[in-house]
Amino acid sequence: QRLLETFVSQIALALERVRLAAEAQSAQLKIETEQLRNSLLSAISHDLRTPLAAIVGASSSLVRDSERLDDVARRELGQAIYDEATRMASLANNLLDMARLQAGAIVLNRQWQPLEEVVGAALAGMNARLADHPVTVRLTRDLPLVEIDSLLIERVFANLLDNAVKYTPPGTPIEIGAAAAAGELTVTVSDRGHGIPAGEEKLIFEKFHRVASEGNQGGAGLGLSISRSIIEAHGGKIWAENLSTGGAAFHFTLLLSEPPSIEHEENA
Ligand code: ADP
């Protein structure tokens, strides 16, 4: 509980600074910033409290009822703790990314890399999370190297894959593909879920915008907006579409030529 409070208060402090900066601007902007801060705080409190409560519940029965539990029950409780802690870790990562992006402190540590390595690292990091979905990777042979901040691009893959797990039924396939054309690499992560409701394809990239809210499957609505900031900082584009075969496809591009040397600005 103390951890949660410290965490929330740190975020509140960061947002307070953002709010102060915005005071210099129009009254309308001030109202929007206030709304943003409130929605962030309530989303974060909810999204941290829910998994925390589950972790406290599962771990306390492991400790208290340990003698009476059989192996299967113990494993299930362990799994529940792992799943919920993973969710909190992903939210914490997104909040940290968000704080960095908000502060305008996105410094790209670019290196020429094969995309395969970044995809491999992202998949390895999400191994347990992807256990219920067959994942196919289709990268065309001899893809050119890309000059990217691989940790940040890995975060984009992690967010897209995490969504592909959250918003699709277990057992449905997820595909990662990439092809080079016209000076850029286009990367696609697609699933066979219910897709994105019509008209929401652009909105889902806005901060805090969420469509699906069945149970507490989702997070704070930050993953896609962070992913967009990361891709735009690399000079690329990111967009979503529904597939005629069902499911959603998320595409992003990475430049193959010399990357632009413009400073990234959050366009929130
Ligand atoms: P979060 O998942 O935390 O809500 P995101 O920014 O990652 O936030 O996603 C925003 C919204 O976009 C989600 O709440 C969901 O409604 C929708 N969405 C994202 N990925 C998918 C997907 N693969 N299929 C269907 N809807 C999706």
Automatic annotation (TrEMBL):
Superkingdom, natural source: Bacteria
Subcellular location: Membrane
Domain annotation Histidine kinase: ranges: 43-258
Role played: Member of the two-component regulatory system KdpD/KdpE involved in the regulation of the kdp operon. KdpD may function as a membrane-associated protein kinase that phosphorylates KdpE in response to environmental signals.
Protein name: histidine kinase
Organism: Sideroxyarcus emersonii
Portion held of the full protein: 647 to 914 of 914
